[in-house]
Amino acid sequence: MRVVIQENYENMSRWAAKFIADAINAHKEDRPFVLGLPTGSSPLGVYRCLIAMNRSGEVSFRNVVTFNMDEYVGLPHEHDQSYWYFMHDNFFNHIDIPAENINMLNGMADDPEKECEEYEKRIASYGGIDLFMGGIGVDGHIAFNEPYTSLCSRTGLRTLTTDTKIVNSRFFGNDPSKVPSYALSVGVGTVFDSRCVLVLINGHNKARALAHTVEGGVSQKWTCSALQMHNNAIIACDEAACGELKVDTYRYFLDVESSQRL
After folding, report:
1. Catalytic annotation on 70?
2. Which residue of the set 115, 120, 130, 139 is catalytic?
3. CATH classification of 2-260 is 3.40.50.2000, yes or no?
4. Of 48, 107, 191, 205, which residue is most buried, by most CB within 10 angstroms?
């Protein structure tokens, strides 16, 4: 596991955006570069940086295929809290990606199970995901894989916990009852099948989750801990998120990253 500690959220976002752009630019295979993407507040800074890099000609998304992590069940595309709307409003509408290269789960699907099965098949049809960027919740969940979700899980229907609905209620007028109770989500196994997993962790409220991800044992209670088992897992975090790490752990990763820059 690689842990990249940056001074603040802005620096973390710039580092992650450059890492993604470099990976896209280094891709020499005939097939498209396949990129997994999250929603939420954590990736917004990365999206802003990637948009700026695209406009300046530093990276193009013309040969990139994207797969998003999740979508609420029961929200149509035009709903301003659907993840389809979020991604187009904050990212896709501002870059040069072809519309046909964008893959998102359909929360209005008549047959959710079939929708999830077809999503897994589409990922496989492109040869898998090259780089999956994600964030984690305060309880360490990845996508909508709540605590105690199998670490081998695949894309499927998820029931949102009360805690998650309370956290997400800030987008629904601070009313948890307005937050959908179900979502379609890639599985933990789906994410960790990717060749590279880049997880963003920022803010004091994520400090406990970061500590469990890096220092705790691998457990279904903290689905983020599965990162320890991935051969190419990277955590990009800010100083604020490091508050629960042991001093020696913090110094170790700073030392490793400093050595890599020499």
Report:
1. yes
2. 139
3. no
4. 191
